[in-house]
Amino acid sequence: MKHVSILVPKHNTILSSVVGPYKIFNSVNDFLIQTGKSKKPFFDINLVGIDYGTALYDGAFSIHCNATIHDIDKTDLIIISAVRPNCVAESIKTNHAFIPWIKQQREQHNTEVASLCLGAFILAETGLLDNKQCATHWAGIDLFKQRYPQIDVFPEKIVTDQDGIYSSGGAYSFLNLIVHLVHKYCGQEVAIYVSKLFEIDISRDNQNQFAIFKGQKEHADVLVQKAQIFIEENVTKKISVEQLSESLAVSQRHFIRRFKKATANTPLEYIQRVKIEAAKNSLESTQNTINEVMFSVGYSDTKAFRSLFKRYTGLTPMAYKNKYNRELVNY
C-alpha cells in the first residue's frame, strides 16, 4: 500500500486539484480490486492540511481534511495542490508550515513530492527543486523565474519527473501528471484504464499552445517599460535590440541585462513573444493567409517565422489556425 498525502493549502486552494487526484487514485483502487489484481486498495489516500478544514472561494466550498501534518509521521507521496494565481505570495506565507514538513519527509523517508500547477511555488520554497526541472502554469512562469533563478523552468512541459520530484503544467494538465504517477506505480494497463475512464489525453506533452503573453510590466524600471511599450506599439516593424538600446541612450549590454532582470526575458525574446502573440490573435480571428499574418508582424522569412511560431506555441501556424480560428472551429 502506498500512502499518499494530498496537501490542502489554506484558503487559496484550487478545488479541482484536490478532487482530481483523490478521484483518480480511488478509481485505481476500485479497478485493481474489481479485476482481482489486488485484494486491498493500493493507495491509502489522505487529505492533509495545516488544520482540519479550510473554506474556499469566499466560503462557497469547504474541504474537511482527514489529517494534519502533525498526524502524519511517514508518507510515500506528497501531492501539493494548486493555489490561485492572483495570490501566490500570500499562499506561500499562509501555508509556510507545509515547507519544513515536506523537507523532513523527503530527508527522513525519501518521500516523493509532486506539485500541481502553481503548487510549484510551494515546492520551490522547500529547495527540493533547486537545479532540477520544473513545470507550472504558463501565467506564473515569469514570476517563477524571477523568484527562483536556481530552478530550471520548462514553460512548455506538461510533466517533469526527476529523482522522485514531479511537477505539472497549468490548470487541468495536472491530470496528466496523476496518470503518469499511476503508470509508474501500477503499470500501463491501469494508466490506460484511468485515462479512458476520465477521458484524459495521455499523448499531451506541450502546453505552449494555451499560453497568452501579456507582457511583464509589474516592475519599477521606467526605462524597460518604455522599451516594452515601444515594442508593443510597433508590432508590424522590424525591431533590433541595438535600435532599442540606442533610442534609450544606454549600452546594448547594459540594456539586455537590465531588461532581463525586470522581465525575465531578453529583449529579443520579448520582441518575439509580442509578435507571435499578435500573430496568434490574427490567426484566431481573421481569414488572412499565413503569409499575410507573417508580414503583418514584421517577418518576411516563411521558414524562420514557422520555426519561431512552433517554438512558442508547439504548433505550426496552419495547425494553430485550424484549431483555434473562430470561423473554422465547430463548437
Automatic annotation (TrEMBL):
SMART domains: HTH_ARAC. SUPFAM superfamilies: Class I glutamine amidotransferase-like, Homeodomain-like. Keywords: DNA-binding, Transcription, Transcription regulation. It comes from the Bacteria. The keyword DNA-binding applies. InterPro entries: Class_I_gatase-like, DJ-1/PfpI, Homeodomain-like_sf, HTH_AraC. Residues 225-323 form the HTH araC/xylS-type domain. Coiled coil: none annotated. This is Helix-turn-helix domain-containing protein. It comes from Flavivirga aquimarina. The lineage of its organism: Bacteria, Pseudomonadati, Bacteroidota, Flavobacteriia, Flavobacteriales.
